[in-house]
Design brief:
Layout (H helix, E strand, L loop, with lengths): L2 H19 L5 H6 L6 H10 L6 E5 L5 H8 L3 E6 L2 H14 L3 E5 L5 H5 L4 E6 L10 H11 E12 L1 H4 L18 E4 L15 E4 L4 H10 L3 E8 L1 E2 L8 E2 L5 E2 L11 E7 L1
Parallel strand pairs: 1-2, 1-4, 2-3, 4-5
Antiparallel strand pairs: 5-12, 6-7, 8-12, 9-11, 10-11
Helix pairs in contact: 1-5, 7-9
Length: about 270
């Protein structure tokens, strides 16, 4: 494992206990409500549709709350992640919730070897995942290899333009993947700003929207949906304000100037 993946693994390992206990993930509520979904999957539900009888894989699944929510939409679910502590937590949450789910430990680019080719009808990737991966073309090849013919990719992510901005709203980080890795250091986590994590260093990568779309096309998939959103589910930038629907948006006078998230769907 190279230095960047080793540091990122240590970082995510150090987040697990904090995330399981956090209000952000609200594990107890997810377990208690037989029809409750994670906030992430609740947003995606109208676009995902009925998943009954489909085989779905959630890549970079972390503690599995979104994975288990896909099961509540009817899918037979598999979650894949590189963090053993996260997967241990995911299995425990699944058991508590009475949900049948499989969780597999693997580096992302080893997913096909770990899971098998053409096994899934849906590849699902949650918000905040692909920025940890150095090679977006390799990401798309993995997705395509995992999908059966006719299978679907669904990804919703922070917009790469938003990821370029620093807290002063200046372009402080690369837009394109070729801009290289960015070393970050932060001893807190988005799920709990008070708790401290023991491994604060991370290495992160941006991928331009064109790079993402082209990687999907080059991997043999057909783009079926691409939507840019003017809102976020979290305060991605200091000027953003939370509105009555719970979404975070830029102030009204600059709202039409910056995309904050995007949703992409494709078919194999």
């Amino acid at each position: 494992m190279d230095q960047e993946r080793e540091a990122n693994l240590a970082n995510w390992e150090s987040r697990v206990a904090i995330h399981v206990a956090s209000q952000e993930y609200d594990v107890d509520a997810l377990v208690a409500g037989s029809r409750r979904l994670s906030d992430v999957v609740a947003f995606d539900e109208p676009f995902l549709g009925d998943l009954t009888g489909l085989d779905a894989v959630h890549l970079q699944c972390h503690i599995g709350t979104d994975t288990l929510s896909l099961a509540r939409l009817g899918a037979r679910v598999t979650g894949l992640d590189f963090s053993p502590s996260a997967l241990e937590a995911a299995r425990e949450i699944a058991q508590r919730a009475g949900i049948d789910a499989t969780f597999v430990q693997s580096e992302f680019y080893g997913a096909v070897d770990a899971l098998g080719a053409e096994r899934f009808d849906l590849v699902y990737t949650g918000v905040g995942a692909i920025g940890w991966l150095p090679d977006i073309a390799g990401w798309a090849r993995v997705v395509a290899a995992l999908l059966r013919p006719g299978g679907r990719l669904y990804i919703r992510e922070g917009h790469p333009m938003m990821w370029t901005l620093d807290d002063d709203m200046q372009i402080g980080f690369p837009y394109f993947e070729r801009g290289g890795v960015v070393r970050m250091e932060c001893d807190t986590t988005y799920a709990d700003k008070e708790a401290r994590i023991s491994a604060p260093v991370t290495y992160e990568f941006n991928h331009g929207l064109g790079e993402i779309v082209q990687s999907v096309l080059d991997a043999g998939m057909t783009l079926t949906r691409l939507v840019e959103h003017d809102f976020c589910e979290w305060q991605g930038l200091p000027p953003m304000v939370q509105e009555s629907d719970g979404k975070w948006r830029m102030p009204v006078d600059v709202r039409d100037r910056l995309p904050l998230m995007y949703t992409l769907e494709a078919r194999k």
